[in-house]
Amino acid sequence: MEEIKKEDDTKKEDISLNIDKDKIIYYIKRYNIFLLLLIPIFLAIFYRAYTYDLPITEDFAQNSVYQSIESQIRSQIIQQAPDIDQETLNQIAAQRTNEYIQQNQQQLKQNIVQTREFIVENYQDDSGQTYLLAIDPYHYYRQAKNILDHGHVGDELRDGKPLDNHMLAPNGRIVAPSLHPYLIAITHRISSVFGNDSVMASSFILPLIIMALATIPCFFIIKRFAGKLGATLGASILAIHPSILGRTPAGFSDTDAYNIFFPLTITWLLFESFRTKIPKYKLLFAALSGLATGLYAFAWSGYWSFFDVVLATIGFYIIYLIIKYRKEFYKKKLFKNIIKTSATYIISSSIFILLFTNFRYLVNTVTAPIDAIFLKQAAHPSLWPNVYTTVAELNEISFTNIISNVGGNLLVILAFIGPIIILLTKKHFSSRLKYSLLIIIWLIVTLYASTKGMRFILLIIPAYAIGIGILTGTIYNKILKFSHRSLKLNKVFIAMVLIILLAIAFQPMLIRADNTAKGEVPSMDDSWYQVLTKIKENSNEKAIITSWWDFGHWFKAIADRPVTFDGASQNSPKAHWVGKILLTSDEHEAMGILRMLDCKSEQAYNLLLEKTNNKILTKKIIDQIILEDKETARKTLSQYTDNPEEILETTHCDPPEAFVITSEDMVGKSGVWSHFGSWDFERAFTYNTIKANSKQNAIKILTTELNYTEEEASDLYLQLKGIPESDGNAWIAGYPGYANTVSCATLENETIMCQNGVQIKDGEATIETSEGVLNFAFFRDDKEVYKKDEGIKDFAIAYVPERNILVSMSPALLESMFTELYYYDGKNLKHFELFDKTIGFNSFEIYTWKVKWNSL
Fold this sequence. Notes:
Elements: H1 2-48, H2 50-53, H3 56-80, H4 86-103, H5 105-122, H6 137-150, E1 156-158, E2 161-164, E3 173-174, H7 179-192, H8 199-240, H9 242-245, H10 258-275, H11 279-299, H12 304-325, H13 333-356, H14 359-373, H15 399-406, H16 409-421, H17 429-450, H18 461-485, H19 491-518, H20 526-537, E4 544-546, H21 552-559, H22 574-583, H23 587-600, H24 603-612, H25 615-625, H26 630-638, H27 644-651, E5 658-663, H28 665-668, H29 670-677, H30 681-692, H31 695-705, H32 710-720, H33 725-732, E6 738-746, E7 752-754, E8 758-761, E9 764-769, E10 772-775, E11 778-780, E12 785-787, E13 796-800, E14 805-809, H34 817-823, E15 832-839, E16 845-851
Helix pairs in contact: 1-8, 3-4, 3-5, 6-7, 6-21, 7-8, 8-10, 8-18, 10-11, 11-13, 12-13, 12-14, 12-17, 16-18, 17-18, 18-19, 20-21, 22-23, 22-29, 24-25, 24-27, 26-27, 30-31, 31-32
């Protein structure tokens, strides 16, 4: 009986197991689409979540510990053998370092863990939340906080419009609302229900969510043409492609993710509208696509680029139908369907664009492509410099580099083949052409756009992923069908083989994704956070921070203080004025410019221009009066206006509390700010005149306006007419900059010897060359500047005793305000008091100066 009972129990277990297997198979078959869709969603989330733990910091910690050991070993070797040559030193140091590491692995592991914890803490706030990764996310973070605090993106309302009183200090700026800060605010309100009280945390997770969602329309677009496998592969490429991943990890809370999500969503809904035969669904999908377009415009002002792609696709397809069917085209169902979808889409897009933004955004559909051509024009018609010529994200790159970044020649070609291959069925060529056209135009337009700025490469990837997915899925289906029908091979076996091969081919992209995700760390750290918090806690609310524009969003968000200019207002006259503050060797001039900026920004120039109607003359007058006391300036202005007081209020007011920040990054950016600081308005006028006029007209204008001789004007015309914009910039103003920095040592005879061979003694700097010992014509230390008529004049050198370093630079920077503030701690200046000096864990230096207005 017991044996029978045991047998029955065993049978029940077997039945139970069989039932479970059947259920699993059933659910897999029924829900396999959703299971496959989870793969790209998981990949999108997994790699973007690296920034929560910052795994790269383990490498940082290990390198830091090992370098410290090697440095100590080097010092010991040099003490034991002072005359050792460099090559032998390197070999012995490397050998002893490796031996030490092998012998002390357990202790070093503990050191590395402790060092990593220290490094990670420097990238996180007190709650353990990683700082936002880049600069621009802090702009939206602050706007989201404004929305949560008082319902709009501004700090206050002016005439019913949101005003950001931290931008373009002290005037502020009316700002338009956009989707991103509202989504941050919504995310925060939802997450706060679950205990989240950090707006930064809400902002941090948003790009991860959007990119996970973006894989869904990509999946279903590809599935429509190439099945589930192609859809999984294409959506997975989208999820982890380095060009997208590098700009959309968690923490990179900018608008880039919307440039992936919305074009894909618009395309998916349009394709569904094209496909469905049910009239009400056709109109519904087209209207929803229009809604997505309106939201895209609300998210990013450059939405027009994809909107124009859609309009071009519709236009080309209608032309094709007219040519194919000639006089009968309007009777064809294909034509009627495209008209229904297109009209609904265009009307709904226009309505939602106007609803979420304004009429200008709609007009941009036509005007913006033309404006984009002149985005990097050397000088504005106003003669002020064009800052966009130096923005790194807008640097032009070669077509070869673009192809390399996307995936290489072969994969890009295959991406174009994908949308073409869906046309090979002759029966459906006409109906499928519109799908193929949109993807191909999308690829072509974004490839071209990427040549105008490296940040636009990510715009290619959605179309690229769709193309690769369609091609791969189609080939997979064809092979499967052929091997099963013609070769009589097991379908499941062939499918498994093909999937394994695809997984192997996909492996290199996973490795690249891992490296990209691992390399993402915040540019904000504790040193910056502490400096800006100190300003916030020790200054008036209206205190103004002036520095180069890059970190302006940080200053507004963390210090909560107005800034002269920032990443949303960099293309303005302030680029010249701030550059000139940093470049000038005249502290009085620097203070005059700073006072004017803190009084009313560049309003003085605008007011005076209305009186003189002469841009060059106006600039000369402003340059003059900022150096003069108020009474003298009044007399100067009286020659050009009946109301000098109006202008004096903007140049000679009692300015608010002010801070100036000089940080280490500005050394590398010196060529940029010095270029704008040395901007020559007469040359800008000459350049613009020659570019915009015939030779005869240009000569006439230049001889009349600038008193050039006809010969001089003619020579300039021949010189400048055909040069590219980049060369035009260099002709208008140079790019003085800092070069290398080397350490120095003081010898027994009080001679200072530097690593680059420069010797300094008794106010003279020399270097031994093949031509003998040469002097430097331009040399300085912390107390005095030495200039000679003879010697090396191509560059200048500055010895900094406190740091025992020698800095090479352009002669124009030798006595500049930046050199005085950053390298010589402001000791030779009267109007700048050191407020804070911070050196970060990575030796990054930040100097904050409080302006002493009362000494002016």
